[in-house]
Amino acid sequence: MKSAPGVLSIDDDTSVQSILSSAFADSYAVQVAFTGEEGLRHYEQVRPDVVLLDLMLPEMSGLSVLRALRKKSTSTPVIMMTAFAQVHTAVEAIKLGAAEYLEKPLNPQRVVCEIEQLVSAKTIPSRTVRENIAGDSPAMQGVWRVVERFAPTNIPILLQGESGTGKGAFARAIQSLSKRAQGPFVEIDCSTIPEQLAESELFGYEDGAFTGAGKKKIGRVAFADQGTIFLDEIGVLTFAAQSKLLTLIEQQTFVPLGSRDARTRQVDVRFISATNVPLLRAIDNGTFREDLYHRLNGITIELPPLREREGDLELLARHFVSEMRARYAKPDLEISDDAMNLLRSYSWPGNVRELQRVIAAAAVMAEQTITPDDLPLHVRSGSKKPLALSAKAAAGQAETNLSALFLSGKGRTLHEIKEWAGREAEKQVIRELQKETNANRQELAKMLGVDPKTLRSRLREIAAHDTDS
Q1: Chain mean position to CA 214
Q2: What percentage of the chain exceeds 90 in pLDDT?
Q3: CB within 8 A of 293, min separation 6: which ones?
Q4: Looking at 304-448, which runs of residues are DSSP E strands?
Q5: Could you tell me if 422 and 462 lie in one domain?
Q6: 262 backbone dihedrals φ, ψ, rounded to 5°
Q7: Same domain, yes or no, for 358 and 444?
Q8: Is the pTM of this model over 0.70?
């Protein structure tokens, strides 16, 4: 008969020890210790499968005990417990090798669930997850070390980096390596949610909650229960939505818009957020709550730009060429040395996403081998300006038109001017990509990352504009 897994509980609070011992009695062999020194002696004697360790112990602190346990074994999972939860202490404990960090008062069922997950260890091997993100540079190795340490915990993670550095890919990797890997992964791009609808999209609403509200709608937060929420471009959320999000993180509860009672909805979610603009700058500008920042920033993971990932560019380029073979039914597609040298000499302000789009466009142009002639002009010339930047230049050249628009009285507000300039820049990007790639509408939509119907609408606008001019 297989023996029950062993749990060692180290805590000087007798009431906590009594509660945990009762909760574990049917499934685990429990040993208790009331001091750090006693706990270390018990560990040597019984070699438990899991250790529960209180942070505030007499004489020898919980972190000191954790350091001593790690010298004895790096494989035994340790769950830290404390009534004085602070994010920086949790982060330090995880860096020292703790598997999880729980706040008191403890929920015995939650503790049992955590132990069951640690004992069964049914997480996806890190090697398998790594295969989904190409790159083996020292900078990326450093990122992976932090990801693999913090992914299995419930500590909130803030991903920070330039656009196109792979924040979404790493958010999914963290989910896959976490204890919530089998739960839902709800990705929310905050920049695409209209300001007036941010709260209803996140938290849902009841019938008639506001003008135009139809039947009851469940918010995205509710769909993430028992899983992970990824808040991309978190810095653009309205203050009202930020306030509710703070409550959600602190209490794991929310109230839908228009709720006719004060009952809160309980959820169990882990938060990953991302931004390409430092949130500390947004705090200084008064557009982001400092208390929310500290709740989201359990640990910050800085994703390096492609120009700082020494040796990764060629690996990524060949990875994308391999993808394009299947996408465009070109099984013999390769990339020439001359083309690769041009890729190396370019600075990639749009990072990995820009590289992927350049390879996609070149793959459409190429017969069997991508040559320098198949690459976009800005890459061939080494101008270090992507299409988006040349579009800004085109918008600048339209200064006369903009002045005419202003003087006509039709575009005198900053919002109207901003909308007009954005449309002009968008048209120029599409024109340049059409000229460079000669791609059909479906291929062009893939390169731009938009729905073909959206692209068709934009092409009609361009055609109408060209006819008028």
Answers
A1: 32
A2: 36
A3: 279, 280, 283
A4: 334-335, 369-370
A5: yes
A6: -90, 5
A7: no
A8: no
